[in-house]
Q: What sequence folds into this?
C-alpha cells in the first residue's frame, strides 16, 4: 500500500498530473474540438506549452536526480525559464490588447528572470536564481494588482466581464506568490504549505487560460479530467481492497477465487461506466448551467406555415437564438464559408476562419449546419450566450436535432414548391380549364380537315399536339434530355411557321447527352425566351442556336440568339427563367448554373447541370 | 408479304377518316372495315377476323378496354390502342411495353407502329400475350367500367391463339415441355411454363395439386379419399385428378369445405 506522506512522491504526482493536464489542453486546443474563435490560439498554445515544459522539466529533475550535473542544471534552467515566462504570457492573455504597457512590462520581467536562470547555469551561483524568482514574484504581484485595479476602474471594455478580469489577475498574483517558495529547497515534512502552493500553479494557470476559452473546451476538458480522476480513485480503491484481502495469495491457491476476481473486475467496469455517466450528468446540471434547448426541436416542428424558404429559415434561426439566449444570429449559405464544407453537426465557429466574410462573423460562437440537398446547406450562426452560458455538448446535440427538424420542414416545403413550379411551367392549370380530350380530339379533327397535300399545316398541328401534350401530361420531375429536345424542336418549328425567314434554327445535341435526365421544361422556357426577346420584336432576321453536350461530369446546354444587346431591358430575367432557375436550385443546389450573358448583339444563356444528381431524385 | 387487314374503331368520323387516309399511304395495309362503337367493333372482329385493330379507348357504350375483354373466340388480331388523352392508360401501356398511338396520329408515328405490328404478326404468341397484358390494365379512377371482367389467358389451338377467361379454365396440366389449358370444351396449349403461370396466378383460385398440375378450385366438385395418401378430385366436367392428401387439403382449405 503506497503512502501519501512522502514529499517526493507528492511532487512527482503533482508534476505528472500537471504535465498530463497541459498535454490534454494542448491536444484539445490544436485538435480543433472546442476551439471557438480565431483569436489568441497561439498565446494559449504558448502558455500551455510553457506549463508542459515546466512540469516535464521538474519531473525529469525529480525522477532522475543522478543525471550528469551539466544536463541537470540545463534541465532546471529551461524548466524555470518556462515557469518565469508563463506569468507574462498569462498576463498577456488576461489583458488582451487593452493594456499594452503592462504586457510589455511583464515580458521584460520574464526576460530578466530567464537571463538570470541561464547566467546561473554559467556558474554565477544560486543567488541569481533567488533574485530571478524574487523579481518575478514582486514584479507580477505589482502588475497583477495594477491590472485588476485598471479593470475595476474601466469596466466593460474588454470581452469577458471586468469581474472575470479581476479574478484572473488575482489568480495571477497568487501564482506569482508561489514563486517565493522556490529555491529554498523542498520542505522535509509532508503537506507543507510549500507543497500546496507549489502545485497551486496548475489550476491557477488553467483558470487564467480558460478565461478566454469557450466553455466547450472546458466541457470536453473537465469531462476528460473527471473520467481520469474517477478511474484513478476507483483503481486506487480496488488496489487497496486487493491488498487488504491479500487477493493475490488466495487467487494463487483457489481457481474459484480467480473466477470471483474476474467477475468482480467485470462488475467493477460496469460500475465505472455507470458512475461516469452519473458524474457527467451531475457536471452538466451542477457545474455547467443547464442549456434550455430541449424544447427547441418541438418548437420548430410545430411552427406556423411558411410559404417562403428564406422566411422559414430566418424564423427558425431566430427561435434557435432565443432558445440559446443569444442576441446574435444569422443564416448564411455554406459556400460563403469554405471551412464549413461537409459540416454535418453543429461545431464551434473556428471553422469560419479563412472565409472571405470571417471578419463580419467574428461575433459567432457556434455554427449549425442545415443541409438542404447534397452539397447545398445553410449555416445558422449563433453568437455569445447571455449569462455566461456556453455551447456544451448537450446544447450542440439539441441544436443538431433542431437542425434535423428544419431539414425535414425545408424538404417538404421544397417538394411542394417544386410541384407548384413544375405545374406552373407546364401550364397544368390549363388542364382544369380545357378538357384535354376535347383539345386533342379537336386537333385530330383539324388534322383530318387539312388536305394531305398541305403537309406543312398538318405538321404544325402535330407539333402543337406534341407541345400541349408535353405541357399537360408529363407529370414527372425529370425527363431524358431527348424528350425535352423533341419538344424544343416542335416548338421552334411552330415559331418558324409564324416568323418565317426571320428565324433561323440550329439545334445540335450529342448522342451521349440525350439520355441524361433533366428537370422537365428546363430548356424549352429558355428557347421561348430567346424567341420572344431576341427574334419576335425585331424586324431583321435572327437565329436561335441550341447546343447540348456532356462535358466531364456535367451537361452543358447553351441557347444563343441574335439580338438582346440591352441588358437593362432583360435584367428581370422573366418569370419563365426565374422558374427554371429556382427548380434547378431545388434539384441540384449550387451545383447547377444558369447564366445569362449579353455579348455585342447576341444573348447566350448557359445551363450547366451535374450528371449524377438527376436519377436519384426522379420518381 | 401478306397484307395487314385492318379494322378502325373510333366513334368520331373525323378520327376514322384521318386513320384511313394515313393507312392509305402504306401498300401492305388494307382497311378491312370501320366501327363506330364497341359493340360494332366486336361484331366486325368476329365477322372480318382482321389482322390489326386500331382501337379508340373513349367511346360511348363499350369502350376500348371493354372490347378487349369481350373479344370473340377465334384467331386474335393485333390490337393497337389509339387515344386522345388518357394519362392513366398511357402510363400502363408504357409499364407493359405496349404500343399505342396518340391523336392526332402522324405518318411517322404510324409507320413505326405498323413495323412493330408486322413483327408481332410473325409471333402469334406475342399477339396473344400483348392482349392479355392489355386486358390486365386496371380501370382508371373514374366511373368503373361495369362489372370488373375476369382475367384472361392466351391459349393455342391448332395454329390460332385464343383469349380464354380464367374462370372457364378447369386446370393447367404439364406434359413434358407442353402445358395444357383444360376447359370444359377443349384443351389449349399455354404460352408459358407451368411455373410462370403459377407465379402469375398466385393469389387466384388456382391451386397447385401436383408437380405438374394447377387446378381451378372453383371447378372442383368432389373430393374422395382413394387410399390413405391419395385423394381423387372430380372437376365440373367430370374429369378426375389424383392428388396427394396434403394437396387435397390445400384445395379444401381454399374452398373452406
A:
Amino acid at each position: 500500500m503506497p503512502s501519501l506522506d512522502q514529499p517526493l512522491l507528492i511532487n512527482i504526482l503533482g508534476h505528472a498530473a500537471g504535465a498530463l493536464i497541459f498535454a490534454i489542453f494542448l491536444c484539445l486546443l490544436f485538435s480543433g474540438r472546442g476551439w471557438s474563435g480565431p483569436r489568441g490560439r497561439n498565446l494559449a498554445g504558448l502558455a500551455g506549452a510553457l506549463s508542459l515544459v515546466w512540469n516535464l522539466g521538474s519531473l525529469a529533475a525529480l525522477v532522475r536526480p543522478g543525471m550528469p550535473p551539466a544536463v541537470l542544471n540545463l534541465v532546471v534552467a529551461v524548466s524555470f525559464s518556462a515557469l518565469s515566462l508563463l506569468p507574462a504570457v498569462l498576463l498577456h492573455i488576461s489583458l488582451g490588447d487593452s493594456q499594452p504597457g503592462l504586457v510589455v512590462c511583464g515580458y521584460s520581467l520574464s526576460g530578466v528572470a530567464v537571463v538570470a536562470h541561464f547566467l546561473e547555469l554559467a556558474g554565477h551561483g544560486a543567488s541569481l536564481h533567488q533574485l530571478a524568482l524574487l523579481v518575478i514574484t514582486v514584479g507580477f504581484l505589482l502588475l497583477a494588482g495594477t491590472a485588476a485595479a485598471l479593470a475595476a476602474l474601466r469596466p466593460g471594455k474588454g470581452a469577458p466581464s471586468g469581474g472575470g478580469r479581476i479574478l484572473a489577475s488575482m489568480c495571477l498574483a497568487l501564482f506569482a506568490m508561489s514563486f517565493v517558495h522556490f529555491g529554498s529547497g523542498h520542505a522535509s515534512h509532508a503537506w507543507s504549505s510549500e507543497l500546496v502552493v507549489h502545485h497551486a500553479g496548475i489550476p491557477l494557470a488553467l483558470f487564467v487560460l480558460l478565461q478566454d476559452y469557450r466553455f466547450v473546451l472546458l466541457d470536453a476538458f473537465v469531462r476528460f479530467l473527471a473520467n481520469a480522476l474517477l478511474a484513478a480513485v476507483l483503481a486506487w480503491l480496488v488496489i487497496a481492497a486487493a491488498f487488504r484481502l491479500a487477493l493475490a495469495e488466495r487467487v494463487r491457491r483457489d481457481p474459484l477465487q480467480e473466477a470471483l476476481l474476474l467477475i468482480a473486475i467485470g462488475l467493477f467496469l460496469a460500475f465505472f461506466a455507470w458512475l461516469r455517466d452519473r458524474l457527467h450528468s451531475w457536471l452538466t446540471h451542477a457545474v455547467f448551467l443547464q442549456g434550455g434547448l430541449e424544447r427547441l426541436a418541438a418548437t420548430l416542428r410545430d411552427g406556423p406555415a411558411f410559404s417562403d424558404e428564406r422566411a422559414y429559415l430566418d424564423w427558425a434561426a431566430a427561435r434557435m437564438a432565443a432558445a440559446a439566449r443569444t442576441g446574435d444570429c444569422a443564416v448564411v449559405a455554406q459556400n460563403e464559408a469554405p471551412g464549413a464544407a461537409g459540416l454535418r453537426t453543429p461545431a464551434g465557429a473556428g471553422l469560419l476562419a479563412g472565409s472571405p466574410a470571417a471578419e463580419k462573423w467574428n461575433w459567432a460562437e457556434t455554427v449549425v449546419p442545415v443541409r438542404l440537398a447534397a452539397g447545398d446547406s445553410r449555416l445558422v450562426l449563433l453568437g455569445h450566450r447571455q449569462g455566461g452560458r456556453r455551447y456544451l455538448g448537450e446544447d450542440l446535440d439539441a441544436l443538431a436535432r433542431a437542425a434535423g427538424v428544419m431539414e425535414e420542414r425545408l424538404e417538404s416545403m421544397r417538394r411542394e414548391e417544386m410541384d407548384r413550379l413544375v405545374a406552373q411551367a407546364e401550364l397544368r392549370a390549363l388542364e382544369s380549364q380545357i378538357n384535354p380530350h376535347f383539345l386533342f380530339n379537336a386537333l385530330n379533327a383539324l388534322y383530318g380537315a387539312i388536305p394531305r397535300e398541305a403537309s406543312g399545316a398538318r405538321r404544325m398541328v402535330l407539333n402543337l399536339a406534341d407541345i400541349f401534350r408535353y405541357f399537360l401530361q408529363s407529370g414527372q420531375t425529370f425527363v431524358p434530355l431527348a424528350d425535352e429536345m423533341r419538344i424544343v424542336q416542335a416548338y421552334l418549328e411552330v415559331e418558324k411557321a409564324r416568323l418565317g425567314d426571320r428565324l433561323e434554327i440550329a439545334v445540335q445535341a450529342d448522342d451521349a447527352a440525350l439520355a441524361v435526365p433533366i428537370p422537365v421544361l428546363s430548356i424549352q422556357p429558355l428557347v421561348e425566351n430567346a424567341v420572344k426577346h431576341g427574334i419576335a420584336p425585331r424586324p431583321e432576321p435572327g437565329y436561335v442556336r441550341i447546343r447540348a453536350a456532356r462535358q466531364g461530369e456535367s451537361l452543358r446546354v447553351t441557347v444563343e440568339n441574335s439580338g438582346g444587346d440591352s441588358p437593362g431591358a432583360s435584367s428581370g430575367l422573366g418569370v419563365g427563367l426565374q422558374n427554371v432557375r429556382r427548380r434547378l436550385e431545388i434539384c441540384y443546389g449550387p451545383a447547377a448554373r444558369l447564366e445569362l450573358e449579353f455579348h455585342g448583339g447576341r444573348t447566350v444563356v448557359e445551363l450547366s447541370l451535374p450528371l449524377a444528381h438527376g436519377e436519384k431524385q426522379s420518381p | 408479304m401478306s397484307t395487314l387487314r385492318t379494322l378502325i374503331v373510333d366513334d368520331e368520323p373525323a378520327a376514322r377518316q384521318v386513320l384511313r387516309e394515313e393507312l392509305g399511304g402504306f401498300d401492305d395495309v388494307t382497311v378491312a372495315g370501320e366501327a363506330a362503337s364497341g359493340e360494332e367493333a366486336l361484331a366486325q372482329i368476329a365477322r372480318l377476323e382482321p389482322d390489326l385493330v386500331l382501337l379508340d379507348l373513349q367511346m360511348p357504350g363499350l369502350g376500348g378496354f371493354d372490347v378487349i375483354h369481350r373479344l370473340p373466340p377465334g384467331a386474335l388480331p393485333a390490337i393497337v390502342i389509339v387515344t386522345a388523352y388518357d394519362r392513366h392508360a398511357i402510363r400502363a401501356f408504357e409499364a407493359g411495353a405496349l404500343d399505342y398511338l396518340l391523336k392526332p396520329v402522324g405518318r411517322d408515328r404510324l409507320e413505326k407502329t405498323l413495323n412493330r405490328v408486322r413483327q408481332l404478326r410473325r409471333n402469334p404468341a406475342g399477339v396473344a400475350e400483348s392482349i392479355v397484358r392489355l386486358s390486365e390494365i386496371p380501370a382508371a379512377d373514374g366511373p368503373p367500367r361495369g362489372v370488373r371482367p375476369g382475367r384472361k389467358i392466351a391459349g393455342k389451338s391448332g395454329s390460332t391463339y385464343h383469349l380464354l377467361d380464367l374462370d372457364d379454365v378447369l386446370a393447367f396440366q404439364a406434359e413434358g415441355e407442353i402445358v395444357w389449358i383444360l376447359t370444359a370444351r377443349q384443351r389449349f396449349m399455354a404460352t408459358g411454363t407451368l411455373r410462370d403461370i403459377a407465379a402469375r396466378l398466385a393469389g387466384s383460385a388456382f391451386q397447385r395439386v401436383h408437380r405438374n398440375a394447377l387446378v381451378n378450385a372453383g371447378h372442383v366438385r368432389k373430393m374422395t379419399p382413394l387410399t390413405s395418401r391419395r385423394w381423387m378430385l372430380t372437376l365440373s366436367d367430370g374429369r378426375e385428378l389424383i392428388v396427394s392428401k396434403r394437396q387435397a387439403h390445400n384445395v379444401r382449405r381454399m374452398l373452406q369445405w
Summary: Chain A has 22 helices and eleven strands. Chain A has a mean pLDDT of 78. The CA atoms of residues 134 and 180 of chain A lie 7 Å apart. Chain A touches chain B through 22 residues (CB under 8 Å).
